[in-house]
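Example 3.
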Amino acid sequence: MKVAVLLSGGLDSSTALHWAHLHHEVVCALAFDYGSNHAQRELACAQWQAESLGIPYHQIDIRAISEHLSSALLSGAESIPTGDYAEENMKLTVVPFRNGIFLAIAAGIAESKDAHGLVIAAHAGDHSIYPDCRESFMQAMSTAISEGTYAQLEILRPFINENKTEIASLAAKLGVNIERTYSCYCGREQHCGTCSTCSERKQALSAAGISDPTTYEQ
Amino acid sequence: MKVAVLLSGGLDSSTALHWAHLHHEVVCALAFDYGSNHAQRELACAQWQAESLGIPYHQIDIRAISEHLSSALLSGAESIPTGDYAEENMKLTVVPFRNGIFLAIAAGIAESKDAHGLVIAAHAGDHSIYPDCRESFMQAMSTAISEGTYAQLEILRPFINENKTEIASLAAKLGVNIERTYSCYCGREQHCGTCSTCSERKQALSAAGISDPTTYEQ
Protein backbone atom coordinates (compact mmCIF):
# COMPACT_ATOMS: atom_id res chain seq x y z
CA MET A 1 0.00 0.00 0.00
CA LYS A 2 1.20 3.55 -0.72
CA VAL A 3 1.56 5.31 2.62
CA ALA A 4 2.70 8.60 4.12
CA VAL A 5 4.52 8.37 7.46
CA LEU A 6 4.26 10.89 10.28
CA LEU A 7 7.82 11.44 11.42
CA SER A 8 8.99 13.48 14.40
CA GLY A 9 12.59 12.34 14.52
CA GLY A 10 12.13 10.49 17.82
CA LEU A 11 12.83 6.81 18.39
CA ASP A 12 9.23 5.67 17.85
CA SER A 13 8.45 7.40 14.58
CA SER A 14 11.91 6.67 13.16
CA THR A 15 11.23 3.00 13.85
CA ALA A 16 7.77 3.33 12.27
CA LEU A 17 9.41 4.79 9.16
CA HIS A 18 11.68 1.76 8.87
CA TRP A 19 8.73 -0.57 9.50
CA ALA A 20 6.71 1.16 6.77
CA HIS A 21 9.66 1.10 4.36
CA LEU A 22 9.82 -2.67 4.85
CA HIS A 23 6.10 -3.44 4.52
CA HIS A 24 4.70 -0.66 2.29
CA GLU A 25 5.59 1.89 -0.38
CA VAL A 26 6.38 5.10 1.47
CA VAL A 27 5.50 8.08 -0.75
CA CYS A 28 6.74 10.63 1.78
CA ALA A 29 7.67 11.32 5.39
CA LEU A 30 5.81 14.27 6.92
CA ALA A 31 7.33 16.26 9.77
CA PHE A 32 5.69 19.21 11.48
CA ASP A 33 7.38 22.24 12.92
CA TYR A 34 4.83 23.31 15.52
CA GLY A 35 7.20 25.57 17.40
CA SER A 36 8.12 23.14 20.15
CA ASN A 37 11.18 23.80 22.28
CA HIS A 38 12.92 20.81 20.76
CA ALA A 39 11.84 21.29 17.14
CA GLN A 40 15.17 21.99 15.51
CA ARG A 41 17.08 19.08 17.03
CA GLU A 42 14.20 16.67 16.46
CA LEU A 43 13.48 17.74 12.88
CA ALA A 44 17.14 17.44 11.90
CA CYS A 45 16.92 13.80 12.98
CA ALA A 46 13.66 13.34 11.07
CA GLN A 47 15.24 14.62 7.89
CA TRP A 48 18.31 12.43 8.39
CA GLN A 49 16.18 9.32 8.92
CA ALA A 50 14.07 9.92 5.80
CA GLU A 51 17.07 10.67 3.61
CA SER A 52 18.94 7.63 4.87
CA LEU A 53 16.15 5.52 3.34
CA GLY A 54 15.78 7.64 0.19
CA ILE A 55 12.25 8.70 1.18
CA PRO A 56 11.00 12.20 0.18
CA TYR A 57 10.91 14.39 3.29
CA HIS A 58 8.45 17.26 3.73
CA GLN A 59 8.69 19.57 6.72
CA ILE A 60 5.59 21.63 7.26
CA ASP A 61 5.63 24.84 9.22
CA ILE A 62 2.50 25.08 11.36
CA ARG A 63 3.83 27.51 13.95
CA ALA A 64 0.99 29.89 13.08
CA ILE A 65 -1.40 27.34 14.58
CA SER A 66 0.65 26.86 17.73
CA GLU A 67 0.33 30.53 18.63
CA HIS A 68 -3.24 29.68 19.58
CA LEU A 69 -2.48 26.51 21.54
CA SER A 70 -1.54 26.27 25.20
CA SER A 71 1.20 23.81 26.27
CA ALA A 72 4.46 23.74 28.22
CA LEU A 73 6.02 22.19 25.11
CA LEU A 74 5.51 25.47 23.32
CA SER A 75 6.69 27.87 25.99
CA GLY A 76 10.37 27.34 26.70
CA ALA A 77 12.46 24.53 28.08
CA GLU A 78 12.21 25.78 31.66
CA SER A 79 8.52 24.79 31.61
CA ILE A 80 9.27 21.10 30.98
CA PRO A 81 8.55 18.89 33.98
CA THR A 82 11.15 16.34 35.05
CA GLY A 83 10.50 12.85 36.36
CA ASP A 84 8.61 9.82 35.20
CA TYR A 85 6.76 9.93 31.94
CA ALA A 86 3.55 8.59 33.44
CA GLU A 87 3.18 11.21 36.13
CA GLU A 88 0.35 13.68 36.31
CA ASN A 89 2.62 16.66 35.59
CA MET A 90 3.19 15.30 32.10
CA LYS A 91 -0.23 16.70 31.30
CA LEU A 92 1.49 20.07 31.10
CA THR A 93 3.22 18.88 27.96
CA VAL A 94 0.00 18.00 26.15
CA VAL A 95 -0.40 19.99 22.96
CA PRO A 96 -4.18 20.02 22.51
CA PHE A 97 -5.27 17.59 19.77
CA ARG A 98 -1.77 17.48 18.33
CA ASN A 99 -2.12 14.04 16.73
CA GLY A 100 -5.53 15.02 15.36
CA ILE A 101 -4.02 18.09 13.70
CA PHE A 102 -1.04 16.14 12.33
CA LEU A 103 -3.24 13.32 11.00
CA ALA A 104 -5.73 15.67 9.36
CA ILE A 105 -3.03 17.62 7.54
CA ALA A 106 -1.28 14.38 6.60
CA ALA A 107 -4.55 13.02 5.21
CA GLY A 108 -4.94 16.00 2.87
CA ILE A 109 -1.36 15.67 1.68
CA ALA A 110 -1.54 11.89 1.34
CA GLU A 111 -4.71 12.18 -0.76
CA SER A 112 -2.89 14.67 -3.00
CA LYS A 113 -0.09 12.13 -3.46
CA ASP A 114 -2.36 9.14 -4.21
CA ALA A 115 -1.52 7.34 -0.98
CA HIS A 116 -4.05 5.12 0.76
CA GLY A 117 -2.61 4.94 4.26
CA LEU A 118 -1.06 7.04 7.01
CA VAL A 119 1.41 5.52 9.45
CA ILE A 120 1.67 6.89 13.00
CA ALA A 121 3.85 5.58 15.83
CA ALA A 122 1.41 6.07 18.72
CA HIS A 123 2.09 3.39 21.32
CA ALA A 124 0.63 1.91 24.48
CA GLY A 125 2.86 3.93 26.80
CA ASP A 126 1.32 7.20 25.66
CA HIS A 127 -2.28 6.24 26.27
CA SER A 128 -2.76 7.21 29.88
CA ILE A 129 -1.75 10.83 29.42
CA TYR A 130 -2.60 11.81 25.89
CA PRO A 131 -6.19 11.23 24.73
CA ASP A 132 -5.19 11.61 21.08
CA CYS A 133 -2.79 8.66 21.33
CA ARG A 134 -5.43 6.13 22.41
CA GLU A 135 -6.85 3.45 20.15
CA SER A 136 -10.39 4.79 20.64
CA PHE A 137 -9.25 8.08 19.14
CA MET A 138 -7.26 6.40 16.38
CA GLN A 139 -10.24 4.25 15.37
CA ALA A 140 -12.58 7.23 15.16
CA MET A 141 -10.03 9.38 13.35
CA SER A 142 -9.33 6.60 10.87
CA THR A 143 -13.07 6.39 10.14
CA ALA A 144 -13.28 10.18 9.78
CA ILE A 145 -10.35 10.24 7.35
CA SER A 146 -11.79 7.32 5.40
CA GLU A 147 -15.20 9.03 5.15
CA GLY A 148 -13.68 12.40 4.29
CA THR A 149 -11.38 11.39 1.42
CA TYR A 150 -12.03 9.94 -2.04
CA ALA A 151 -9.26 7.40 -1.52
CA GLN A 152 -10.84 6.29 1.77
CA LEU A 153 -7.49 6.63 3.49
CA GLU A 154 -6.87 4.63 6.64
CA ILE A 155 -4.57 5.13 9.62
CA LEU A 156 -2.05 2.35 10.27
CA ARG A 157 -0.82 2.28 13.89
CA PRO A 158 1.56 -0.66 14.08
CA PHE A 159 2.68 0.08 17.67
CA ILE A 160 -0.67 0.86 19.26
CA ASN A 161 -0.51 -2.20 21.52
CA GLU A 162 3.28 -2.19 22.03
CA ASN A 163 5.30 -0.51 24.74
CA LYS A 164 8.42 1.54 24.25
CA THR A 165 10.72 -1.38 25.10
CA GLU A 166 9.20 -3.45 22.31
CA ILE A 167 9.67 -0.53 19.92
CA ALA A 168 13.32 -0.23 20.96
CA SER A 169 13.80 -3.94 20.26
CA LEU A 170 12.24 -3.51 16.83
CA ALA A 171 14.43 -0.47 16.16
CA ALA A 172 17.53 -2.60 16.77
CA LYS A 173 16.18 -5.42 14.62
CA LEU A 174 15.39 -3.05 11.71
CA GLY A 175 18.78 -1.36 11.91
CA VAL A 176 17.52 2.09 12.93
CA ASN A 177 20.42 4.40 13.71
CA ILE A 178 19.32 5.25 17.26
CA GLU A 179 22.01 7.89 17.69
CA ARG A 180 20.24 9.83 14.96
CA THR A 181 16.95 9.99 16.86
CA TYR A 182 16.10 12.70 19.38
CA SER A 183 13.73 12.39 22.32
CA CYS A 184 14.52 15.20 24.78
CA TYR A 185 11.81 17.78 25.46
CA CYS A 186 14.40 20.42 26.41
CA GLY A 187 15.87 20.75 22.93
CA ARG A 188 19.52 21.38 23.76
CA GLU A 189 22.39 19.96 21.70
CA GLN A 190 22.67 16.87 23.92
CA HIS A 191 19.80 14.95 25.54
CA CYS A 192 19.35 16.33 29.09
CA GLY A 193 18.95 12.82 30.54
CA THR A 194 16.49 13.90 33.22
CA CYS A 195 13.25 15.04 31.55
CA SER A 196 10.44 12.54 31.32
CA THR A 197 11.05 11.56 27.70
CA CYS A 198 14.78 11.12 28.32
CA SER A 199 13.95 8.88 31.30
CA GLU A 200 11.58 6.87 29.14
CA ARG A 201 14.16 6.52 26.35
CA LYS A 202 16.86 5.33 28.75
CA GLN A 203 14.56 2.81 30.41
CA ALA A 204 13.30 1.39 27.10
CA LEU A 205 16.76 0.90 25.60
CA SER A 206 18.03 -0.63 28.83
CA ALA A 207 15.04 -2.96 29.17
CA ALA A 208 15.45 -4.04 25.55
CA GLY A 209 19.09 -4.88 26.25
CA ILE A 210 20.35 -2.37 23.70
CA SER A 211 23.57 -0.47 24.22
CA ASP A 212 22.45 3.18 24.43
CA PRO A 213 24.50 5.32 22.02
CA THR A 214 22.96 8.56 23.33
CA THR A 215 25.14 11.22 24.96
CA TYR A 216 23.26 12.58 27.99
CA GLU A 217 24.14 15.74 29.91
CA GLN A 218 23.40 13.80 33.12
CA MET B 1 -22.22 25.97 25.60
CA LYS B 2 -18.94 27.71 24.84
CA VAL B 3 -18.19 27.23 21.15
CA ALA B 4 -15.69 28.22 18.48
CA VAL B 5 -17.13 28.90 15.03
CA LEU B 6 -15.41 28.07 11.74
CA LEU B 7 -15.88 31.16 9.61
CA SER B 8 -14.94 31.57 5.94
CA GLY B 9 -16.76 34.83 5.24
CA GLY B 10 -19.27 33.17 2.91
CA LEU B 11 -23.04 33.26 3.32
CA ASP B 12 -23.28 29.89 5.09
CA SER B 13 -20.64 30.35 7.76
CA SER B 14 -21.64 33.98 8.40
CA THR B 15 -25.17 32.71 9.06
CA ALA B 16 -23.77 29.97 11.30
CA LEU B 17 -21.89 32.62 13.28
CA HIS B 18 -25.13 34.52 13.89
CA TRP B 19 -26.92 31.29 14.78
CA ALA B 20 -24.19 30.39 17.28
CA HIS B 21 -24.20 33.90 18.73
CA LEU B 22 -27.93 33.50 19.40
CA HIS B 23 -27.84 29.99 20.90
CA HIS B 24 -24.37 29.66 22.45
CA GLU B 25 -21.44 31.58 23.89
CA VAL B 26 -19.02 32.12 21.02
CA VAL B 27 -15.46 32.29 22.38
CA CYS B 28 -13.94 32.97 18.96
CA ALA B 29 -14.41 32.84 15.22
CA LEU B 30 -11.65 30.94 13.38
CA ALA B 31 -10.80 31.73 9.78
CA PHE B 32 -8.13 29.97 7.74
CA ASP B 33 -5.96 31.46 5.04
CA TYR B 34 -5.14 28.38 3.01
CA GLY B 35 -3.96 30.31 -0.01
CA SER B 36 -7.14 30.07 -2.04
CA ASN B 37 -7.64 32.38 -5.00
CA HIS B 38 -10.42 34.16 -3.14
CA ALA B 39 -8.83 34.29 0.30
CA GLN B 40 -8.38 38.00 0.74
CA ARG B 41 -11.90 39.04 -0.27
CA GLU B 42 -13.48 36.22 1.73
CA LEU B 43 -11.40 36.74 4.87
CA ALA B 44 -12.12 40.47 4.91
CA CYS B 45 -15.81 39.55 5.09
CA ALA B 46 -15.13 36.99 7.82
CA GLN B 47 -13.39 39.59 9.94
CA TRP B 48 -16.17 42.10 9.35
CA GLN B 49 -18.85 39.58 10.36
CA ALA B 50 -17.07 38.61 13.60
CA GLU B 51 -16.35 42.19 14.59
CA SER B 52 -19.93 43.23 13.88
CA LEU B 53 -20.99 40.85 16.65
CA GLY B 54 -18.10 41.68 18.98
CA ILE B 55 -16.66 38.17 18.66
CA PRO B 56 -12.86 37.66 18.84
CA TYR B 57 -11.57 36.87 15.35
CA HIS B 58 -8.50 34.74 14.71
CA GLN B 59 -7.14 34.30 11.21
CA ILE B 60 -4.73 31.42 10.89
CA ASP B 61 -2.20 31.23 8.09
CA ILE B 62 -1.94 27.64 6.88
CA ARG B 63 -0.56 28.36 3.42
CA ALA B 64 2.47 26.21 4.23
CA ILE B 65 0.12 23.22 4.26
CA SER B 66 -1.55 24.13 0.98
CA GLU B 67 1.76 23.97 -0.88
CA HIS B 68 1.40 20.21 -0.55
CA LEU B 69 -2.27 19.98 -1.59
CA SER B 70 -3.62 19.72 -5.13
CA SER B 71 -6.75 21.71 -6.07
CA ALA B 72 -7.95 24.20 -8.69
CA LEU B 73 -8.91 26.46 -5.77
CA LEU B 74 -5.23 26.89 -5.03
CA SER B 75 -3.89 27.44 -8.50
CA GLY B 76 -5.27 30.64 -9.97
CA ALA B 77 -8.71 31.92 -10.94
CA GLU B 78 -8.39 30.70 -14.53
CA SER B 79 -8.61 27.12 -13.20
CA ILE B 80 -12.08 27.64 -11.70
CA PRO B 81 -14.82 25.79 -13.57
CA THR B 82 -18.02 27.66 -14.45
CA GLY B 83 -21.54 26.28 -14.43
CA ASP B 84 -23.73 24.49 -11.95
CA TYR B 85 -22.41 23.74 -8.52
CA ALA B 86 -23.46 20.09 -8.68
CA GLU B 87 -21.58 19.24 -11.84
CA GLU B 88 -18.75 16.78 -12.01
CA ASN B 89 -16.18 19.46 -12.83
CA MET B 90 -16.67 20.92 -9.36
CA LYS B 91 -14.49 18.08 -8.16
CA LEU B 92 -11.57 20.12 -9.44
CA THR B 93 -12.23 22.58 -6.66
CA VAL B 94 -11.97 20.00 -3.90
CA VAL B 95 -9.20 20.81 -1.45
CA PRO B 96 -8.32 17.38 -0.06
CA PHE B 97 -9.70 16.90 3.47
CA ARG B 98 -10.12 20.66 3.93
CA ASN B 99 -12.88 20.41 6.52
CA GLY B 100 -10.94 17.73 8.36
CA ILE B 101 -7.90 19.98 8.57
CA PHE B 102 -9.96 22.99 9.65
CA LEU B 103 -11.87 21.02 12.29
CA ALA B 104 -8.73 19.42 13.73
CA ILE B 105 -6.94 22.74 14.09
CA ALA B 106 -10.09 24.33 15.50
CA ALA B 107 -10.39 21.50 18.02
CA GLY B 108 -6.90 22.18 19.37
CA ILE B 109 -7.58 25.89 19.64
CA ALA B 110 -11.05 25.40 21.14
CA GLU B 111 -9.61 23.07 23.79
CA SER B 112 -7.03 25.74 24.60
CA LYS B 113 -9.85 28.27 25.07
CA ASP B 114 -12.04 26.02 27.26
CA ALA B 115 -14.75 25.63 24.63
CA HIS B 116 -16.83 22.46 24.37
CA GLY B 117 -18.17 22.75 20.85
CA LEU B 118 -17.18 23.61 17.28
CA VAL B 119 -19.74 25.04 14.86
CA ILE B 120 -19.41 24.36 11.13
CA ALA B 121 -21.80 25.42 8.37
CA ALA B 122 -21.61 22.28 6.19
CA HIS B 123 -24.95 21.84 4.45
CA ALA B 124 -26.88 19.31 2.37
CA GLY B 125 -26.01 20.95 -0.94
CA ASP B 126 -22.32 20.20 -0.49
CA HIS B 127 -22.69 16.50 0.16
CA SER B 128 -22.63 15.06 -3.33
CA ILE B 129 -19.27 16.56 -4.25
CA TYR B 130 -17.27 16.94 -1.08
CA PRO B 131 -16.81 13.83 1.09
CA ASP B 132 -15.71 15.92 4.06
CA CYS B 133 -19.03 17.79 4.09
CA ARG B 134 -21.20 14.69 4.57
CA GLU B 135 -22.88 13.75 7.83
CA SER B 136 -21.06 10.39 7.89
CA PHE B 137 -17.77 12.29 7.97
CA MET B 138 -19.04 14.82 10.50
CA GLN B 139 -20.23 12.06 12.85
CA ALA B 140 -16.90 10.24 12.75
CA MET B 141 -14.90 13.47 13.08
CA SER B 142 -17.02 14.56 16.04
CA THR B 143 -16.31 11.22 17.73
CA ALA B 144 -12.59 11.55 16.96
CA ILE B 145 -12.47 15.06 18.42
CA SER B 146 -14.44 13.98 21.47
CA GLU B 147 -12.10 11.01 22.05
CA GLY B 148 -8.98 13.07 21.42
CA THR B 149 -9.65 16.01 23.76
CA TYR B 150 -9.97 16.30 27.54
CA ALA B 151 -13.07 18.48 27.13
CA GLN B 152 -14.66 15.87 24.84
CA LEU B 153 -15.43 18.55 22.31
CA GLU B 154 -18.26 17.96 19.86
CA ILE B 155 -19.00 19.28 16.38
CA LEU B 156 -22.27 21.17 15.97
CA ARG B 157 -23.51 21.22 12.36
CA PRO B 158 -26.80 23.09 12.45
CA PHE B 159 -27.26 23.15 8.66
CA ILE B 160 -26.28 19.58 7.82
CA ASN B 161 -29.80 18.73 6.64
CA GLU B 162 -30.64 22.14 5.18
CA ASN B 163 -30.15 23.40 1.67
CA LYS B 164 -28.68 26.74 0.69
CA THR B 165 -32.12 28.34 0.20
CA GLU B 166 -33.05 27.52 3.79
CA ILE B 167 -29.76 29.01 4.97
CA ALA B 168 -30.44 32.18 2.96
CA SER B 169 -33.88 32.43 4.62
CA LEU B 170 -32.31 32.07 8.04
CA ALA B 171 -29.66 34.67 7.16
CA ALA B 172 -32.42 37.17 6.44
CA LYS B 173 -34.26 36.24 9.63
CA LEU B 174 -31.13 36.65 11.77
CA GLY B 175 -30.24 39.96 10.19
CA VAL B 176 -26.99 38.84 8.54
CA ASN B 177 -25.56 41.61 6.35
CA ILE B 178 -25.47 39.57 3.15
CA GLU B 179 -23.61 42.27 1.25
CA ARG B 180 -20.71 41.65 3.61
CA THR B 181 -20.41 37.98 2.68
CA TYR B 182 -18.34 36.71 -0.24
CA SER B 183 -18.96 33.53 -2.23
CA CYS B 184 -17.08 33.85 -5.53
CA TYR B 185 -14.30 31.36 -6.24
CA CYS B 186 -12.55 33.81 -8.58
CA GLY B 187 -11.61 36.30 -5.88
CA ARG B 188 -11.93 39.57 -7.78
CA GLU B 189 -13.29 42.75 -6.21
CA GLN B 190 -16.84 41.99 -7.37
CA HIS B 191 -18.53 38.59 -7.52
CA CYS B 192 -18.07 37.24 -11.08
CA GLY B 193 -21.67 36.04 -11.24
CA THR B 194 -20.89 33.01 -13.39
CA CYS B 195 -18.75 30.59 -11.37
CA SER B 196 -20.50 27.73 -9.66
CA THR B 197 -20.62 29.29 -6.20
CA CYS B 198 -21.91 32.58 -7.61
CA SER B 199 -24.63 30.64 -9.43
CA GLU B 200 -25.52 28.82 -6.23
CA ARG B 201 -25.64 32.08 -4.24
CA LYS B 202 -27.91 33.79 -6.77
CA GLN B 203 -30.27 30.83 -6.92
CA ALA B 204 -30.52 30.48 -3.15
CA LEU B 205 -31.25 34.17 -2.52
CA SER B 206 -33.78 34.21 -5.33
CA ALA B 207 -35.50 31.03 -4.17
CA ALA B 208 -35.66 32.41 -0.63
CA GLY B 209 -37.34 35.55 -1.96
CA ILE B 210 -34.55 37.79 -0.70
CA SER B 211 -33.51 40.87 -2.61
CA ASP B 212 -29.90 40.15 -3.61
CA PRO B 213 -27.62 43.05 -2.59
CA THR B 214 -24.60 41.55 -4.38
CA THR B 215 -22.94 43.41 -7.24
CA TYR B 216 -22.08 40.87 -9.94
CA GLU B 217 -19.75 41.46 -12.90
CA GLN B 218 -22.26 39.57 -15.07
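Strands of chain A lie at 2-6, 25-33, 57-61, 117-119, 154-156. Chain A has one domain: 2-207.
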